[in-house]
Amino acid sequence: MIHIALMTSVYLTVLLSLERYVRICYLCQMRETSLVTEANLKYYLITVLVLPALFYTPKFFELDFVTETENVQKPITVDCGEVIIRPQIYGYSAL
Asked: Number of structural domains, the chain?
């Protein structure tokens, strides 16, 4: 969800910048434009809200593998010199 919110925030910032650019460059020069109208703004907002959700939809289906190491025995370190000197400790018969 965080990724969707961040991407939506970025797209809304770009949309706001586009709207400001059009207002300043076109309308201050008394030129007509059809880029920023109420109908277009609805489509822009729908696109900005839906696109990140569609982009991150596969993220909801990702699986995380958790390994449990609670009951796993730790490996035993055996000193080979000690096995040769005292074999009865490790269950080996005398050589």
From this structure: 1
Q: Is residue 67 part of a domain?
A: no
Domain encompassing residue 18: 2-61
Structure-derived torsion over alpha carbons of residues 75, 81, 87, 91, reported in degrees to the nearest 10? 10
Contact 88, 94 (CB under 8 A): yes
In-domain check, residue 51: yes
For the stretch 15-71, pLDDT in tens is: 889 888 888 887 776 677 777 777 888 888 888 889 999 998 888 887 777 666 666
Position 61 scores a pLDDT of 80
3-state secondary structure of 11: helix
Which own/partner contact pairs does 38-46 have at CB distance under 8 Å and 24+ positions apart?
Answer: 44/15, 45/15
Supply the DSSP symbol for 77.
P
